[in-house]
Design goal:
alpha/beta
Length: about 625
């Protein structure tokens, strides 16, 4: 009997306009941006926080094979798929070898690929790759491949193309054999009873959907040979599977049937830090492949490049960790995609952003012309002058956890997952509610009882949203909650943007929408990946220095903040100023010095008699 497949990634195209197309891929609406993961979890987000993402996000999570090195036996023993093992059973897992922003080029031989993991460099062979895939059980897997930069020599590119084609054939044949071996092993472990063997067989490894990797090949001859090999793998019919379905082949023969390529994954070699996405080369490669199969692009694309990949190259899923990089650097996505006069949440003429003086004049002229002033593409939440006293959300009308808080629907999701709205176990929350009901007694009966739910509903969301001032405070203090709320906002904002992209593809206006978006937001409006990495490193360093009291960004004369324990009111203002100075990398030094000079001296009476600050810190 043929081993069952995971959730299928069959593409159904509902509408197309030029290369762009929209429809469904399994349960996901495409085109879309997948959710990036780090060691199996959404970066910066805890489980209860991720459950509060109220906007409909893509049901696709991108897993990294190198994050689960030598972990396949653990997942296999759990009798769970990779999504279930990572507590995301409602998501479709797409497993790539490494993150899209990892631009390191690995050395390769004819049999192995040198890869970098936490423990150092390792040699990955095709049989080892197949065993890992069979044990981890992702829904979709990208085949092992040799990726080289576009600047590599001709011979290196030719060898990489030949290796990728040979490894694809090995992966097609090796994954079913490895999965069958694991299923036999599971059945022999429970061979004491036929029922146990049948249960082990039913719960054994299942075959993933295989995507062939498509690296960037600028040489036409090399690219043509690689494309021919990929097309042949996609057109190959598994003869043994067909025979097994007809009953003329054994289970071993059916299990040994090679997988068929059911999609294409374009690697991050189509993207470079200097030039960004090479849309022309990507479009040429995509146009040479069968259009009926889904296409995935794994590259750290910003929203402008995502739009180019969809509108010009026909990508269905973009695996990008740009939104996470923004959150780690303390930045928030705030760009517009509604360009008509009906865009009700556009920024007013007062404006915020890095160049409020220059944007003020343009905002005034835009308002005078009757058009709404645009939001900036990205907002730096570490900017004290713009956000320190700003009580607005990141975006008016945004339904994300950061802007609108946790709604009643999100609270219900938390309760169904075993948590109350505040992260308390439901059993404890229900017992507390029952105790409160018992103490109320007969007073709960009467007209006030029926008015209580209405009053609670009128009070707003179960958890209110966060203001820009508070998020600015979290970012400048180096608190992980700052990255959490920014990650939640950026993922939801990008998902809403992709919904608008799908609408324009369906209505045939994607070309004009792309032109209008590029006219409003040029490439310079979105920070480069290297800039975000430096900002994130500075944020990590500044946050630690502010916490430890050793930061060079503290203003002159500012007392060091307490390392642990209680902090008195006198030193709190100076500590916050020191944190802001260290966080912003020098931009807040003047503000830190002013806050330090204006802050009152530490209150000596707050210390215990005969004690010291060091003694308080170790209490």
């Amino acid at each position: 009997m043929r081993l069952p497949k995971m959730k299928h990634a069959q593409l159904s195209i509902a509408a197309s306009h030029g290369p762009a197309r929209c429809g469904t891929m399994g349960a996901a609406q495409v085109p879309t941006v997948s959710l990036p993961t780090h060691y199996g979890q959404l970066p910066n987000l805890l489980r209860d926080t991720s459950l509060c993402l109220t906007a409909p996000l893509a049901p696709i999570v991108a897993m990294r094979q190198l994050h689960f090195w030598d972990h396949e036996s653990v997942v296999h023993r759990s009798s769970k798929t990779l999504s279930q093992y990572c507590s995301m059973p409602d998501k479709v897992s797409v497993m790539t070898l490494r993150p899209p922003s990892d631009m390191e080029r690995y050395e390769a031989g004819d049999e192995t690929l040198s890869v970098s993991i936490t423990a150092g460099m390792r040699q990955l062979s095709v049989p080892q790759f197949c065993r890992q895939v069979a044990g981890l059980q992702p829904d979709v897997v990208v085949a092992m491949h040799d990726d080289v930069p576009q600047t590599a020599g001709k011979n290196r590119r030719r060898n990489a193309a030949e290796r990728s084609a040979a490894w694809l054939e090995g992966v097609r044949r090796g994954i079913p054999l490895a999965a069958a071996a694991m299923q036999i092993s599971s059945g022999s472990a429970t061979a004491g009873s036929s029922a146990g063997a049948d249960a082990a067989s039913a719960a054994g490894p299942r075959l993933p959907v295989l995507f062939a990797a498509v690296p960037a090949m600028s040489d036409p001859l090399v690219r043509s040979k690689l494309i021919d090999a990929l097309k042949a793998a996609a057109a190959a019919a598994p003869e043994a599977a067909a025979a097994g379905a007809a009953g003329s082949a054994s289970a071993a023969e059916a299990a040994a049937a090679p997988l068929r390529v059911e999609g294409f994954a374009f690697t991050n070699s189509f993207w470079s830090g200097e030039r960004g996405l090479d849309a022309e080369l990507l479009r040429s490669a995509a146009a040479s492949l069968p259009p009926a199969l889904p296409r995935l692009l794994s590259a750290p694309c910003n929203p402008l490049e995502v739009l180019d990949a969809v509108a010009l190259c026909g990508m269905d899923v973009v695996d990008s960790d740009y939104a996470t990089a923004l959150a780690s650097a303390g930045r928030a996505l705030c760009f517009d995609w509604e360009f008509g006069a009906a865009a009700g949440d556009a920024l007013t003429a007062s404006g915020t952003g890095p160049s409020s003086s220059s944007s003020s004049a343009s905002s005034s002229s835009a308002v005078a012309a009757g058009a709404a002033a645009p939001h900036p593409a990205v907002v730096d939440m570490a900017d004290s002058a713009a956000h320190r006293l700003d009580g607005r959300p990141l975006r008016e009308g945004c339904p994300c956890f950061a802007c609108a808080g946790a709604t009643a629907e999100a609270s219900g999701t938390l309760e169904r997952s075993g948590l109350a709205a505040g992260g308390i176990p439901v059993s404890a929350a229900s017992s507390s509610a029952a105790a409160a009901a018992r103490t109320s007694g007969a007073a709960s009966a009467g007209p006030s009882a029926s008015a209580a739910p209405a009053a609670a509903a009128a009070a707003g969301p179960a958890h209110p949203g966060h203001s820009r001032a508070y998020i600015h405070h979290l970012v400048n203090c180096g608190e992980i909650m700052g990255r959490a709320v920014l990650s939640a906002h950026n993922h939801v904002h990008l998902a809403r943007f992709m919904g608008a992209v799908r609408s324009h593809v369906a209505s045939g206006t994607i070309a004009s929408f792309r032109d209008a978006f590029r006219a409003r937001y040029p490439a310079a409006a979105f920070p480069a990946l290297e800039e975000l990495r430096k900002a994130a490193a500075a944020a990590d360093s500044g946050g630690r220095e502010a916490f430890d009291g050793e930061g060079s960004g503290a203003g002159a004369g500012a007392p060091p903040p307490a390392k642990r324990g209680r902090v008195n009111n006198g030193g709190g203002a100076a500590s916050g100023a020191a944190g802001a100075g260290g966080k912003s990398g020098g931009r807040g030094k003047a503000a830190s010095a002013a806050a330090a000079s204006a802050a009152p001296a530490p209150v000596a009476e707050a210390l215990p008699e005969g004690g010291s600050a060091k003694a308080m810190a170790t209490e």
